[in-house]
Amino acid sequence: MYRVIFFGLILTSFISMAQMPSLSPPVDPPGNASTPEKVKLGKILYWDEQLSATKTVACASCHILSSGGVDPRSSVSNPLSTNAGFDGIMNTADDITGSMGVPESGADGNYIYNPLHGYNSRVTGRRAPSSINAGYAPELFFDGRAGGQFYDPITNDLVLISGAALESQVLAPPTNPVEMGHNSRNWNDVVNSVKTSTPLALSPLVSDQMSQWINSQNYFQLFKKVFGTNEITAPKIAMAIAAYERSLYSNQAPIDAMIENQDPSFLTLQERAGFQLFQSQGCNTCHSSALFSNTEFQNIGVSPNAEDSGRFAVTGIEADRGKFKTTSLRNLQYRTSFMHNGRFSTLEEVVDFYDRGGDYANPNLDTRMQPLFLSATQKSNLVAFLGRPLTDPRVTNETGPFAHPSLYAGSSREPQITGAGVAGTSAKIPQVTAIEPPLLGNQNFTVAVENALSDANSFFVVDLADPGTTALPATGLNYATKQLSNTTDGHASLSIALPSDTAMIGTTLYARWYVEDAAAPNGYAISPLIEFTLFAASDYVYVDSFED
Ligand code: HEC
Ligand code: HEC
Predict the structure, then answer these.
(1) Where is pLDDT greater, at 489 or 346?
(2) Nearest CA to ligand 1 atom 37
């Protein structure tokens, strides 16, 4: 009996293996042929947080390769990754689990107090899909609004006539005031950020190969090396990043080894049983081909159509309301959120969702969404198949094309906020935001304070030692004054210039924000301590890696 079932599983696997081609490299669009040099430049731009208005967010921030090209911060258990959703109100049923971008800011760099997020980073209205294997779909984003024709965002000229969804997609995040931009940022501003940055200046760790390739050159020189002239333009930035993304295809998962070798033993018995269910339950009708996606749009009842109209927003066709692009199922093993709104945290929850035939019945719901009545064992078999067999270990281990420089955000280079402050009226301790890089000579180091008395005078003091919690110091290395806003929550933001003297490299600076407040012990409510060490643009540490 056991043998018969076992034999049956092997047979089914073999039949489907024969039908399934393996994942070949994505095709370059005419006009943007990939070269190893272009891929390297694209990688640098993709990992460089200086492309954002606040110098704190890179493409990589929301598309971390080791997490499968998605955002590991995005989780229902992380309140900072919550977007209010359709109703604009936090902590209601339609909340979205998205990705943190930038604090709201203006063209002058100062932060603008956001009604939902204060000075915290704003959050995307959808969960970030993967940037790995993104080179296959003819249209990108959950609603497919990034199409195959690529236009220069400054001149509006048609640059690439087809197959350029990745290039089109790059144009959105850098000017989006939630993701990487300031309010009203345009592509001239983005190009300017690239021109005035030292490649990967903020990154604490860069591979030997990458640093040798950069070889202390600036972006103009790198663009010349790749494109033949030192002109930096929006299309070139987009084409380089897109070429890098096309190099991020994952075709060395256990399922690929199984297909290539025509040998089912690359999957465990349980995983094979899951694969069989995946086919018998019709999952593969949408999650088809070696990509495990037909790259089409379907309504599977993840959210009410009124909350997010999906594909309808692009086509205006009523039958497209509530349709979203079928996601590839590769590299899901280490995910913390699933579906366009991030509403599920585990693969078990996703399988339960399919088992009950989806939620939110509506006229556009795909007819394939029917209750499956799976047993507990069948569910865990399906979950087992969706994890390890489809996950390329090079993605998880960050090797080969998935090796990369490290990010500034989250590193010890970020200002650290420590200790207690001094409370003022209503026991409020001023809360500071200090996330921007203490890069030597940074002329626009922006900080902000909130949770303080409104309308009060305030003082931001930077010094070579802790300016202290007893009284307002009389002097400091940097001494800025600012009146807090006259709303119920006193808040303000200001930008200061950091020292540019190379003798100061490695010097640690200390700062506190003092808010005049008669209810505080010595007349000042005082923030916790901000501590940061000045670093130079060429300070990165080289590491050995498997990168090429
Ligand atoms: C703050 C987070 C954030 C940043 C920064 C960010 N993205 Fe995304 N990305 C998202 C979200 C959210 C979506 C989905 C939006 C949608 O579908 O409406 C997305 C979608 C994409 C997609 C489409 C994938 C698909 O299958 O449709 C690609 C490719 C991508 N991003 C690449 C990039 C690149 C390149 C950059 C830098 C230029 C970047 N992202 C910056 C959050 C981010
Ligand atoms: C009618 C087409 C269709 C069928 C059938 C289908 N899916 Fe999906 N699947 C989708 C679409 C569309 C999405 C993206 C929906 C969204 O994000 O709102 C998706 C998303 C997923 C996700 C989440 C991936 C991510 O990146 O968040 C998983 C896991 C998944 N499907 C597994 C399955 C399994 C297992 C089955 C079979 C039981 C199945 N799907 C059947 C269309 C389908």
Answers:
(1) 346
(2) 59
